[in-house]
Amino acid sequence: MYRVGFGYDVHRFAENRKLILGGVEIPFDKGLEGHSDADVLLHAISDALLGAAALGDIGQHFPNSDEKIKNIDSGKILQHVMTLLNEKGFEVVNIDSTICAEQPKIFHYVETMREKIADLVNLAKDFISIKATTNEKMGFVGRGEGIAAFAVVLIKKREQK
Description:
This protein has about 160 residues and is an alpha+beta fold. It has one domain: CATH 3.30.1330.50. Helix content is about 30%, strand content about 30%. The chain contains 5 helices and 7 strands; from the N terminus they run E-E-E-E-H-H-H-E-H-E-H-E. The protein has helices at about 40-50, 60, 75-85, 110-120, 140, and strands spanning about 1-15, 20, 25, 30, 90-100, 130-135, 145-155. It has a 5-stranded mixed sheet. It has a two-stranded antiparallel sheet with strand order 2-3. The protein is globular and about 50 Å long. It starts with a strand and ends with a strand.
């Protein structure tokens, strides 16, 4: 049994924060605002996986009102999601994602992000796709106010032995 999930996340830029995308720190003069480390890519992927398995969304599992998880590493969020999927008997088949930002350019960090995500979801890097695009100077992303990310995932039920 196969299932598809879609995820979307967006965060505005913030001063005095590190920019973390796909679990990788990207040199830039701003980071992203959020209750966690605000990694829009890992959030979009996490939500896509939760959706595919009909397990809710990040906000249900990691509410921004919970001070115990303030500034949590989004890799830990994704690891928790993977634990939930494993408990339900699912495994990830592939992940396709897009980061939408005018700046910074992320081309040189994509392979490192793919490796990090592959490690977090226990999948070969060849099954992780990360693309980047701009918003052609339109909307909040185009004005350089933040970054958005989209993800589509395919999961399957593990065969019973």
